[in-house]
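[Discussion] Sanity-checking designs against the backbone

I'm trying to build intuition for which residues belong where. Below is a C-alpha cell string of 212 positions. I'd appreciate it if someone posts a full sequence so I can compare it with mine line by line.
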C-alpha cells in the first residue's frame, strides 16, 4: 500500500524565505562562535546547508549578507527584549524587574553577534551605515516598550525614560562587553544601577537639577 503525503508543497516564496532564514541564522551562529573574521561565505553556507550559489542568489556580496545579518540580529534583540519585558510580573517591583530582565537580554547570543558587527563597523563604512541605522531603530523601539512599562501618568519625568534608559544600556553594554573576556562577569554595577535608579526617581526635580 502506498501513501500519498497530504502535506501541501511549499511555495517558491516560502522556500526562498526558509533559505534566507537559514543563511542568516548561520551567519549569527558563526559570529557568536567564531567571530567576525571567521564569518566567511564558505563557512556560512556550510552551517546553513546550502550551496554558495544559493547564498549569492539572496546576498550577492558579503556586505549584503552582513547588512541583512545586522537587521536579523536587531530583530533577535528586540524579540528577546520584548519577551523579557512581557515576563515581568506587574505586581512586582517593576524597576528592579526591568533592570534584571535587561541584564538577562544583554547576556544572550544576540548581544555577542551585535558586538562583533559593531566592532567590525568601525573600519567598514558600509557596514557602519547599517549598524548605525538599525541601532537607532533599536533605541526607538526600546523607548516604546519602556513607555508601556512605565506609563507617563505614573512616571511623568521625561528624563527617567530618555536619560535613564540610555544610561542603563550604556552601563550594561560596558559590563557585558568586559564579561566577554573577563570571567566570571561581575554584575555588581547592575545592582548599583538599581540603587541609582530608585534615588533618581525619589528625588524632587529641584534637587535633581542641583546634582546635574
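Best answer:
Here's mine. Compare freely.
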Amino acid at each position: 500500500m502506498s501513501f500519498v503525503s497530504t502535506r501541501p508543497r511549499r511555495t517558491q516564496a516560502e522556500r526562498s524565505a526558509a533559505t534566507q532564514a537559514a543563511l542568516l541564522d548561520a551567519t549569527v551562529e558563526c559570529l557568536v562562535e567564531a567571530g567576525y573574521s571567521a564569518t566567511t561565505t564558505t563557512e556560512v553556507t556550510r552551517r546553513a546547508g546550502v550551496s554558495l550559489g544559493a547564498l549569492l542568489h539572496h546576498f550577492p556580496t558579503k556586505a549584503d549578507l552582513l547588512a541583512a545579518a545586522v537587521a536579523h540580529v536587531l530583530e533577535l534583540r528586540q524579540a528577546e527584549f520584548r519577551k523579557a519585558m512581557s515576563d515581568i510580573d506587574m505586581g512586582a517591583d517593576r524597576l528592579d524587574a526591568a533592570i534584571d530582565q535587561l541584564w538577562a537580554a544583554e547576556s544572550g547570543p544576540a548581544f555577542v553577534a551585535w558586538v562583533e558587527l559593531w566592532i567590525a563597523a568601525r573600519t567598514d563604512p558600509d557596514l557602519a551605515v547599517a549598524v548605525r541605522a538599525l541601532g537607532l531603530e533599536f533605541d526607538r523601539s526600546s523607548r516604546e516598550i519602556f513607555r508601556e512599562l512605565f506609563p507617563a501618568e505614573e512616571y511623568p519625568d521625561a528624563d527617567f525614560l530618555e536619560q535613564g534608559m540610555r544610561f542603563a544600556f550604556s552601563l550594561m553594554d560596558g559590563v557585558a562587553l568586559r564579561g566577554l573576556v573577563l570571567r566570571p562577569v561581575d554584575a555588581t554595577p547592575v545592582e548599583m544601577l538599581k540603587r541609582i535608579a530608585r534615588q533618581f526617581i525619589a528625588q524632587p526635580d529641584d534637587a535633581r537639577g542641583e546634582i546635574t
